[in-house]
Amino acid sequence: MAETNKGRSEEEVARAFVNHYYHLFDNDRSSLSTLYNPTSLLTFEGQKIYGVEDIFNKLKQLPFDQCRHLISTVDSQPSSMAGGCGGILVFVSGSIQLHGEDHPLRFSQTFHLVPLPQGSFFIQNEMFRLNYG
Amino acid sequence: MAETNKGRSEEEVARAFVNHYYHLFDNDRSSLSTLYNPTSLLTFEGQKIYGVEDIFNKLKQLPFDQCRHLISTVDSQPSSMAGGCGGILVFVSGSIQLHGEDHPLRFSQTFHLVPLPQGSFFIQNEMFRLNYG
């Protein structure tokens, strides 16, 4: 992500990340690949996908083109209190409105953001689940 | 948790942790405090709680006594690929059946488990949300 971490709380970083991520997802999905690194891991509905290229292909091939995310909650925490890597955990709940479908689908999603030397973050970990029932 | 990490994949650790955590939650909730450390963070329905004692008090004071968790999905990933702390992210979805209530409540929960020198893990991060709608 383009923003830097200078002087911002993890809540501010998390909120900015969430806005940025879902804006790209809904409007320019191929640009999401800029948020990942070669070590990134995505688990999408139980399927594990490793690295920028395979994650990009997975996102590109999802069986829907147009969608709109509605975010209900954003929780965040530093991923280590003891001089760790400065990562941030972000836990999102919300719903996805797919184009042409009557009812939105509930989902939950977890991200682990890890800082880069220049002050921006990449997605080290991401796990997505639809919430059925 | 009592188990060690010797030779186990993060999926095996995650599954064992999930079984252990929800068994304690449903049968001996006060014992959950053994899973936390002074640096632990719990975000419960948006409320942030820090450290073993306050987390213990929060869990003890939840407005229901008897409950049963039904786990739908367990996803897990190492929290760092690049020689990090050896942590494991665990992402759970399921439902809670409260005693005397007709309908179970859907929930999602994220844990970040961090290893201790003796090979067990503690909960560094935990975030819980009911999934309404």
Automatic annotation (TrEMBL), chains A, B:
Gene3D superfamilies: 3.10.450.50. Keywords: Cytoplasm, Nucleus, Protein transport, Transport. One of its GO terms (cellular component) is nuclear pore central transport channel. It comes from the Eukaryota. Residues 13-130 form the NTF2 domain. InterPro entries: NTF2 (IPR045875), NTF2-like_dom_sf (IPR032710), NTF2_dom (IPR002075), Nuclear_transport_factor_2_euk (IPR018222). It is found in: Cytoplasm; Nucleus; Nucleus envelope. Pfam families: NTF2. GO terms for biological process: mRNA transport; nucleocytoplasmic transport; protein import into nucleus. Interacts with RAN1. Has a role in nuclear-cytoplasmic transport of proteins and mRNAs. This is NTF2-related export protein. It comes from Brassica napus (Rape).
